[in-house]
Each structure stands twice: as C-alpha cells, then as structure tokens.
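We emphasize that the prediction below concerns an isolated chain of 333 residues; any contacts that depend on oligomerization or on bound cofactors are therefore not represented. The input was used exactly as deposited, without trimming of termini.
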Amino acid sequence: MDFYGRDFLKILDFSEDELRYMLATAKKFKELKHEGRSHKFFPDKNIAILFEKTSTRTRCSFEVAGYDLGMGVTYLDPTGSQMGHKESIADTARVLARFYDGIEYRGFDQKIVEDLAKYADVPVWNGLTDECHPTQVLADFMTMEEHLGNLKGLTLAFVGDARNNVANSLMAMSAKMGVNFIACGPEELRPADELVEKCREIAKKNGCTITVTSDLHALDDTADAIYADVWLSMGEDKEKWGERIEQLKPYQVNMEMMNRAKPGAVFLHALPSFHDLNTSVARDVHEKFGLSEMEVTNEVFESERSIVFDEAENRMHTIKAVMFLTLYERREK
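Result of the prediction step, given as a token string:
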C-alpha cells in the first residue's frame, strides 16, 4: 500500500485494509523499540508539531517517534506561532511546508487541520481536534487487539459524553474494523446523527452494528471493552461542570458495570483521568461538588482490567507508523 504524501486527518479517510496495515506497521515498530533496534529511517527529515491545545501523551509520542525515526522535531506551543493571529492558516501552512517534511496539529476546529492540509504540500497529521482524535483510536485498537485478540466481532462501549472527539473516532474505527460499537450516554449528549448514519452504512458492509443508547444495561453480557473519557474537555467552559456532572454521574464506570459486561472485559481511557484526588483539577471539583472520582472509579482504573498504560504507550508506536508510512517514498524499479 502506498501512503506516501497523504494526510492523516480522520479515520473515515482510510479503508479497512489501510487501517489494518497501519496497525501491523505499528506492531513492527513496537517490536523494534522493545528489542532496542535502531530504526532511524529519516535522518534528513524534520517535522513541526503545532499545539494550540497542550498535551502530555500527544507531544511526547510525536517527539519520541520523530527522534526514533531519526528526524528533527520542532515543538510550537500555543504562544510559539502566529497562526490565526498575525498570520493566516493558509500562509502558516505554506511557510512551514518550506521548512518541514511533515506537520502535526493539535487544537480546536477540524477545519483548521483541514486547511493546513489544503495549503501545505507535505503530510499533515491530526493530533486532536474538537471533532476527531484519530491517532488516539489507532492506539486504542492496537491495545484491544493485544489483549483481546482478533478485533472483528468484538463489542466496544463508550460510556459518557458520546458526542466528543474520541467517541466520534472510536465509532468510525469500529465501523471500519468490524467491531460492534455502543455509544452510551445521556440523550442530550448523543453523537451527531449524520456521523451515526455514515458509520452505520460502513458497519453494515463489515458485519457489525452501531448502537446509540442511554440504557447502561445495553452493555450487560455484551461489552468486551468499556471506554471512558473526561467529562469536560480541554477548553470548555468550567461553568458547565455542575450541569455536566449531573448529566454524567449515572454513567461513571465502576466495578459493578465492569462485572456486568462480558467476562474478561477491559477498561480503556485516553487519559488524563480523574479517578482520584491527586490532581489540582480533581481537588477543585471535589471541593465544589464533593466528588472524589469522576468518569471512572479508582478501583477500576487501578485494576488488572485496566489497560490504559499499554494504550498510552501505543500512542507512540501508532504515531510512528503513521509518520513513517506517509513520509516513506517507494521507489519501484
């Protein structure tokens, strides 16, 4: 398969075979990393990683993946570029493309990363937007495959705010990979109907289903994996905490929920997670609302059923695969 020069903006842009090839490539890179074997394939390339939203895992994954591949990496934080302030997105893209061989963007509107890709003549990779989080779900599915075996026919349940970027990309990836997907959350936090219908069309061809429900019992004896995410995304108004907590408290992932799922069901989370009081945000919420745990209980998070740290590591391997595939030019004789 030839990915050279392509952008990685959303899961729906790629076929099932292409996504499986990305996962297979990530697995090879993980083996190389764990065996300590050098894989500096791009010593003459440089990439820019452009962050309007700060991050731990995304930044570290792109930086280490870039260094492992032999590339130079420039990190631009929210104050490190004039994009959208003194310089248009189009002009920023055209300038950066003169310096760099690839550009990562993590920020807000999906249109921003789409515009970067439109005007840059180098690959652009989506590190997160309000609509999509494609590098995250590649790592999620790689991790599920490691722990649960063949993906096709599994059931993945996302519990909580089912219209957020992670849920959107999980639903698309599930449809592509033949995984049954359950979006379980409050009626007012459902995923967009247009995306649901598009994913259902794809799922039908791949022998799986897309279910949107408010009923937690839809997970009983069904879910092979349960996925939670933070209740209030970065950049959202903190004044919404009270309303959001009341909406989502019934959907907290606890051990009772895990035990009602299929035997051996695993827990996933994109991180960071508010499962204890060891962060300033969690302590602030505890002081205002009395909660010591939010989207997942500490019992589940720290249990053997939690695979969140394998998932976090796999961000690096899947990102490395995406960068390698889109930067590697095949030269056929």
